[in-house]
Specification:
Length: about 170
Amino acid sequence: MKYDDPRADGHQLYDDSRLTAIGLFAEVHAGLMSRFSPVMNAAGLSEVDFETLIRLARSPGQRLRMSDLAAQTGLSTSGVTRVVDRLEREELVQREACASDRRASYTVLTVAGAERLERVLPQHLQDIENLFTGLLGAEEMEAFLDTLRKIRTVVRPCATAGAETSPDKNPCES
């Protein structure tokens, strides 16, 4: 059955380039994650486990306050607690209390956590190269990174929480 378009400009709304941009972005993200998942799963890591471990590995002193880890991963405080509990049971992370603020605690990457990352990273980096970054020239990559950072600043301003902390200076200790 054929339906008449009640609006003369209805198709113009559907063809809006903003919808195309967000649709392509969502498709690419979903496609990349589905291609990365087998490598992560083979190492016993979920996507959120990997995200948590790699953020710790890339942070000063390989540690983050729980609140900063929640902000960086986009998880709720209870969500990050569940992830850290699970990773702690596997001895991939450990918690450290803050000496000067009993309300705060740190999640620290353990040697076992670093080893798990080091097992998965070579293949993961190769997959990233083959499916994503290798498709872009140097200038395209730089422009793409600048664009992603600009968008991230608006949609997830806390995504780098705790990243500015020097490994020698604990913001929690005087």
